[in-house]
Design brief:
InterPro entries: Acyl_Trfase/lysoPLipase, Lipid_Hydrolase, PNPLA_dom. Keywords: Hydrolase, Lipid degradation, Lipid metabolism, Membrane, Transmembrane, Transmembrane helix. The protein has 12 helices and 9 strands. By secondary structure, it is of the alpha/beta class. Strands 1, 3, 4, 6 and 7 form a 5-stranded mixed sheet that branches. The protein has a two-stranded parallel ribbon with strand order 2-5. A hairpin with a 4-residue loop joins strand 3 and strand 4. Helix 2 runs antiparallel to helix 9 and helix 5 runs antiparallel to helix 9. The longest helix is centred in the last third of the chain and has 26 residues. It starts with a helix and ends in an 8-residue tail after the last helix.
């Protein structure tokens, strides 16, 4: 659960006066974005995430190798993902939220007529059956005939599970399409773990600063320039070490995770390099998380707190740099 580092960075940003108007996230980042959109503060999330047993999110797979092979072959994933989805649903329900219609924003000029409704939250997933990126729920409006779903009625917790369905680790979410086909929806990190394009401001919102938080391999001493492996959808060496003793499907998982890491790094490096070409600029807080992988659910209390502190330290360096430039939060481009 590397996204715990996001909470530390968000806490510092909130201490500097930031409040969040629109949010986007991929994989575990989608979970944090959804809870912030629901009204939880970073301090509340720190308390919640520090008290749970993350091993519950890796439930649903038998210990013996034969059953693991069977799950991979017939379920396409070792773990169901049901616990993660229910956990998010309960937290959202406590704030009176269920579907994306509860997070719909007022229309801005003619934008809604041209591009469809806008929401406080966007989560990124990937439809591997149709080989396309999904920005949820917006793409359900743009491709309503293709998926047959009302974007306002899409369950938020279900969308977060789609975004967090790490291939082979979690069973993919399936959608029955009106054309009779079946779409397999998996982790948005397959395409991008750093979904800046989902939040590019409209003309009416151009005055709002856009902050990106991305996770990178490295330590406190490393300076990220977007060239490291970033995002929440990809496995790292720590993940692969835990799979080394399993049979062939484990090698397949490790290989697939390495491919995901490569794809994610290349795409997000391109995104970071293109920032200066976008209308306005985007500020990015890079958070090094060492070698803790996306599928580490056996974190100790000290590792959980270390991730939180890594996020805080990265954000504090960022805001110290702003102060040295003479920038206040409200003056961010």
């Amino acid at each position: 659960m590397r996204a715990l580092a996001h909470i530390g960075a968000l806490a510092v940003a909130e201490e500097h006066g930031y409040r969040w108007y629109r949010l986007a996230g991929t994989s575990a980042g989608a979970m944090i974005a959804a809870l912030i959109a629901a009204g939880y503060s970073a301090a509340e999330l720190h308390a919640i995430m520090g008290a749970i047993d993350y091993r519950r999110f890796a439930a649903g797979a038998a210990d013996d190798r034969l059953h693991q092979v069977s799950r991979l072959l017939f379920k396409l994933g070792l773990h169901s993902g049901n616990e993660l989805e229910q956990f998010i649903r309960e937290l959202l329900r406590a704030r009176g939220l269920r579907c994306f219609g509860d997070l719909r924003l007022p229309a801005v000029g003619a934008q809604e007529a041209a591009h469809g409704p806008r929401y406080r939250l966007t989560v990124v997933a990937a439809d591997i059956s149709r080989r396309r990126l999904l920005l949820l729920p917006q793409d359900l409006h743009r491709a309503r005939a293709s998926y047959g779903l009302d974007p306002d009625q899409l369950d938020i917790a279900r969308a977060v599970r789609m975004s967090a369905s790490i291939p082979f680790f979690y069973v993919p979410v399936t959608l029955q399409r009106p054309d009779g086909g079946l779409s397999y929806i998996v982790d948005g990190g397959l395409v991008s773990g750093f979904p800046l394009l989902a939040l590019l401001p409209s003309d009416a919102e151009a005055a709002r600063p856009l902050l990106g938080f991305h996770l990178c391999e490295g330590t406190d001493d490393s300076e990220s320039d977007g060239g490291e492996v970033c995002g929440d959808g990809a496995g790292t060496e720590a993940d692969q070490a835990g799979l080394a003793s399993l049979p062939l499907p484990a090698n397949l998982i490790a290989f697939s995770q390495a491919l995901l890491a490569t794809m994610l790094s290349a795409h997000d490096r391109f995104m970071l390099e293109q920032r200066s070409r976008w209308r306005g600029s985007v500020r990015t807080i890079s958070i090094p998380v060492g070698r803790i992988g996306a599928t580490r659910f056996d974190l100790s209390h000290s590792e959980i707190e270390a991730l939180y502190q890594q996020g805080r330290a990265a954000a504090e360096r960022f805001f110290a740099g702003l102060a040295a430039e003479g920038c206040e939060p409200s003056a961010l481009p």
